[in-house]
Predict the 3D structure of the following.
Amino acid sequence: MTFKTTFSALTLGLTASLMTHAATTVTIGTVNNGDMIRMQKLSQAFEAQHPDIRLEWVVLEENVLRQRLTTDIATQGGQFDVMTIGMYEAPIWGEKGWLTPMTDLPADYDLNDVFPAVRNGLSAKGTLYALPFYGESSMTFYRKDLFDAAGLSMPRQPTWSQMMTFARTLHKPDQGQYGICLRGKAGWGENMALMTTIANTFGARWFDEQWKPEFTGPEWTEAVKFYVDLLGQYGPPGASSNGFNENLALFNSGKCAMWVDATVAGSFVSDASQSKVAGKVGFALAPKQVTDKGAGWLWAWALAVPVSSDAKDAATTFVTWATSKAYSDLVAEKYGIANVPPGTRQSTYDNPEYMKAAPFAAMTLEAMSKANPKDKTLKPAPYVGVQFAAIPEFQAIASQVGKLIAGALAGSMPVERALQSAQNITLREMKRARYYASR
Amino acid sequence: MIALSQKQRRVFSQIALTAAAWSVAFIIFFPILWMVLTSFKTELEAFATPPSLFFSPTLENYQEVFGRSDYMHYAWNSVVISMGATLLGMLLAVPAAYAMAFYETKRTQSTLLWMLSTKMLPPVGVLVPIYLLFKESGLLDTRTGLILIYTLINLPIMVWMIYTYFKEIPKDILEACRMDGATLGQEISRVLLPMCKGGLASTVLLSLILCWNEAFWSLNLTAANAAPLTALIASYSSPEGLFWAKLSAVSTLACAPILIFGWISQKQLVRGLSFGAVK
């Protein structure tokens, strides 16, 4: 009897152990954003539907994640089965053959529902390499109460010159109220994202048709001078160290009359649990100047499966689930419809309930549909991307240029010198990358 | 009159010294204090300018951390990796320091300097070769891998520290042991190590603290299995959204074990670090 019991227990244990081993483990590298955290929490539903797939999460800070994923994918390390990447990485890594093409998606996935600009931004040579989890453009947030009190009215799409006038009127630092908050912190995804969109509207571009940088041209000079004047005179103190989060905190605590930043902030500023100004915020398109081309940026966080993964099928199943309409429905059911991942699917914006629950949704939709990564500058440009150029060298170049512009904002060097240095650095890097020899 | 003013001067200088010492201690401790305070604030309060000193404390950040992450998994990894690397480091450092301290050759000093020079290389410079080596040997995302890398990182400092302590021991004592018939093992285990107990304890403690706080390699060489507490902290920084209060809560939880450990063993640490300072 004892033998039988022991034998049965051992058999059961072995079976359980084998079953555990039979489950495919999918390791997901992601960032700590609200939408990603919700995905992590809701993934229990996915595991219940797919008992043969076990999910493991590696959540990292954005810059650390980028470094970690780049090291892993470039060395074919195979540590991650699902990678959270952006519109910058997807086409570059896809073209290098590092990502699994997203073909043969299930019919109910409805790929045509995904915004074409987002789909194109995640593709290389017509092949889609990542599925979008959420997308964003940029827009103008302003305090309706302050505008009303000052007798001002915000156009649907203001010009930067109008923004300067509004900021001058509403700038009252002695009352802890600043005319405008903008990104000043150095970084290709921080100040350079905003600066590039400002430059686009002033008629500037990163490179001419021969890949020569144009920082010393009149358009860049005017744009950067304007930015430094606007933020220096009517921005909060220490603006050169403010990124998205710092400005969000300033705006939510009622210290900014206006803010131009990611559309995803719409849900944060409207959420009374974290914003003192919820209900008082108006939304407008990102400002234009000589052109409205490239005024609002375009970005998407997407999920991709590296070719080095040893669980590609399971990983693709998860990626398909997390970016599907069914997932959006699940978020709506558990967290409320306003928390559905924004900026990826037309059907989200066709839903009247969503449009009613999210006061920023109409403006987000308009901003997303206006952003065109292939036609974003007044003069033709050889690169793809509104607030970046989708070439491998851009990250390193823009990080250095970002430091120079933050330096100019902080007053450590004149704008002309910062731009001359930016021109020299970019030329040197592009020469090194043999852009001029081969083209 | 003169005697009184001298006494007064002494009292004043003592008060000034005490105040200065407390001020320095407070300045050093302030970031930790601020981190702990922030961990009990809401996200909005954590970001408030000017910062609020008085607020109604909340435990919501700790609830969020425990609800979202398997804290014990990360803490256990930190314990195993720190202790494993320290043990392995001591096993290698003690014989190395012994040979260098008591059987010095003309190359000993240059070897010691060379060992220390490896600490001057920025770790990111060797990231890709190490990553490839780890990948090929199946050490990525394993505790064994991190134990090996931490041992290699801390070995120069451990050898240097133990070498310095061994140099304080007069050679005559060891010669007397040998005259009495002690073997090499007995000489080290019964005479040398007990005489340097304080110094060895401080080396162990320093190694533990360095391993516990190491972030570069733990972030780059681990994924889901072997990630220690430093990786857990990094997971609470957010590019879009407020995170300071939650980050402070998880940092407090990550610091707490080693802080308590350091507190308990501070006597050993101070004794070890000042060993041989006054003859």
